[in-house]
# Entry
Amino acid sequence: MATILLFDIGNTHISLGAYRGDELVSTWRITTRVDGTPDEYAVMLRSLFRQKGANGIAFDGSAIASSVPPLVSTFAELCEKHLGLRPVIVGPGVKTGLNIRTDSPREVGADRIANAVAVKKLYGVPAIVIDFSPLATIFDALSDAGDYLGTAIAPGLTTSADALFMHAAQLPRVELAAPASKSPIGKNTVASVQAGLIYGYVALVEGMIARVKKELGARARVIGTGEMVNLIAVETKAIDVVDEGLTLKGLKMIYEMNV
# Structure
């Protein structure tokens, strides 16, 4: 039974997953540092392995999906030098089983591809895949034939909140949560800001889903993933499935297609 190590490299965090066969045995999340060296990341990796009791695991393979181009070579060297593995790197020339129907298929991010591959196999098509990261929320569309049609990119909830707090001097920085009253009408400054941020963002998500469904068809399933997904998903019925491990699942499938 093969044991593989997967790296999902995002702009703010890097998610790692260790699979033994079809079982996800351990996951980790670390802060993305573009200037980190392979040796530095290797030290961090060994520390994480010790914490989860994974020290000494002999990995049979690895795969990388990166939204941060400079870190592709960093983690490729980490795998080769410290793990003795030549990783599968999601990008041009790698088998995915996915037809990408965009103007420039090479521009589609590796995490987008991994998510689409997982959704196509696990949840069916047509589908709308929404990835809620702190920096951006990305809406990917899959046709009823399973083709990747394109995407829409909106500022992430954290990005939106930071812009508000930075430019509105009298507004306090608040916790990113729905107001305690659960009302969209705030009775104080904190509740007003929370209502606008959370319920305003829910309205953005529901509006985008409605618009994309007009093109894909009403039966398109909506799958949510990403660090911020649970904050929004509990406030709307428009998201059918929440799968926080979607990218790692898709990355594992791509690895298996290429070994």
About this structure: The chain has a mean pLDDT of 94. The longest strand covers residues 23-31. The two ends are 14 Å apart (CA to CA).
